[in-house]
Amino acid sequence: MGKYYPDSKVEVTGAEAKHYDLLMNLMTLGKYSGFIKSVVKDMHIKPNDFILDLGCGTGRNSCLMHKELSSEGKIIGFDISPEMIEQYKKNCLVHNNIRFEEKRIDRDLGVNEEADKAFISFVLHGFPHNVRLQVIDNVYKSLKTGGEFLILDYNEFVLKDMPFYLRIPFTAMECKYAFDFLEKDWRAILSDNGFGDFSETVYFGKYVRLLRAKKM
């Protein structure tokens, strides 16, 4: 299957997708697993939450979120990469309250019940801006009033001010869409699309952020 957005690097396929968790561990010198566990704690998940995991990948995040839920809580993961889907099903569908949908997140999610939370991890920055806005609209339609949109992604910063030892690998690794993502005011964008009551937690020297926004 080809990419829907050829210039994006968030649509992971092939060997990279098959070994994605291992690659993330290697790239972060073993810190990624602990980092994601911290993020899940910072999401303040309630036992009965209904959570949408957008671009759910291998299921590492969904499985960690599941640990915070009671039997009344539930998760639906969305992805389109065959290699990711295979791993998600193997890792997560052993739990009765986790479901998977093979759907693009820039199309209607078709969720029949309004969710308490929607989580997206290092995906939004990799899309053209009009696609990001469509994803935001899809999330808005899928959340209950007061529900939270949780975006784990790059914080807003000026690339030229980043230390060269971070700027060089970032520039080499990231797709073209990531660079304008850094410069946008995401609170303003989300406000224009029906969200408010923002809060955030930052990581890795404030270059990464978990931005929380509530559907108003």
Polypeptide structure, described:
This protein has 216 residues and is α/β, with parallel strands linked by helices. The chain has one domain: Rossmann fold. Helices cover 38% and strands 24% of the residues. It is built from 9 helices and 7 strands. Strands 3-2-1-4-5-7-6 form a 7-stranded mixed sheet, sandwiched between helices. Helix 5 links the parallel strand 2 and strand 3. The longest helix is centred in the middle third of the chain and has 14 residues.
Which features would summarize this protein structure in a list?
216 residues, 9 helices, alpha/beta, 7-stranded mixed β-sheet, 24% strand, Rossmann fold
